[in-house]
Amino acid sequence: MYYELYLDVLFLENLLADYLLLSLLKRILKCPAGRLRRLAGAALGSAGVCGLYLFAIESTFVGRLLIYVIFSTVMVKIGLGIRDWRTCGRAVILLYISSFLLGGIFQWVQNQVKLPLYPFAGFTLISYWMLSACMGWLMEVRSRLKNILETEVGFHGRKILVKGLLDTGNQLRDPIFKKPVCILTANRKRELCGEEEPMYQMVPFHSIGEQNGMLPAFFADYLSIRRKDGSEKRVERPLIGITKEPLSSQKEYDMILHPEVLD
Q1: What are residue 39's phi and psi, to 5 degrees?
Q2: Which of 135, 149, 230, 237 is the most exposed place for a label (fewest CB within 10 A)?
Q3: What single string gives the DSSP state of each residue in the chain?
């Protein structure tokens, strides 16, 4: 039994898969590599694999060494513009992981979807889009978790512990004294204040669907924020805005911290 192998088809299939993998790594590692650079890296990797098949050494020890070490390293260095070897090693490991995940999704898509056109390209693109969406969601969650800080809020002898999201997009300020405003959910405010109603002042805000909103806010006694390195920042007389809407659909945090509270 023997198989006919078309090197042009092999080259194009590997070119597409390698280009998509490099595009995924670019997003994960936040490399500034452009499309032509990624295409050049993918072309070099694909040409190397075709060369091994041309000389029938792809299954030998030397061939596997070239594929899994040399070609992959050259591909990420050229395709992503990585210079230091530590980052390059990390990129190669991520390349293997992404390739494994892409292959698994490819097999699942192949069993679920019927394509009338050239199947490899269609299955690969669908698999890439699915993997890219999952990676994007995981990166968003990871980024969000990095900015969630343990926070203690005190008011008139009472205190609560909340998870606060340090949101650089929160630019809400008191219009008179320009004091930064943190935002707390109404249910956690009730825990903090009990039966006592604080003295509110109204803070204007703009958001999607609310062009001229007014947010009730009051002065708490203090905020004590624990940074990721273990140190704490205490803020006296912070201005706390109250919202009836949940801040996180997954209940990951109950408070939005103004970025200036850690300055």
Answers
A1: -65, -40
A2: 230
A3: ------HHHHHHHHHHHHHHHHHHHHHHHT----HHHHHHHHHHHHHHHHHHHHTT-TTSHHHHHIIIIIIHHHHHHHHH---SHHHHHHHHHHHHHHHHHHHHHHHHHHHH---SS-HHHHHHHHHHHHHHHHHHHHHHHHHHHHTEEEEEEEETTEEEEEEEEE-TT---B-TTT--BEEEEEHHHHHHHHTTPPPPPEEEEEEETTEEEEEEEEEE-SEEEEE-TTS-EEEEES-EEEEESS-S-TT---SEEE-GGGG-
Q: From first to last of its 263 residues, what are the pLDDT tens digits of the chain?
A: 455 666 767 788 888 888 888 888 887 777 777 888 888 888 888 888 888 777 777 677 777 777 777 778 888 888 888 777 777 888 888 887 888 877 777 777 767 766 655 677 767 777 777 877 777 776 666 656 567 889 999 999 999 999 888 887 778 888 888 899 999 999 999 999 988 889 999 988 776 555 677 889 999 999 999 887 778 899 999 999 999 888 876 677 889 999 888 87
**Distance from C-alpha of 94 to C-alpha of 30, rounded to nearest angstrom:** 13
Does the predicted model carry a pTM greater than 0.85? no
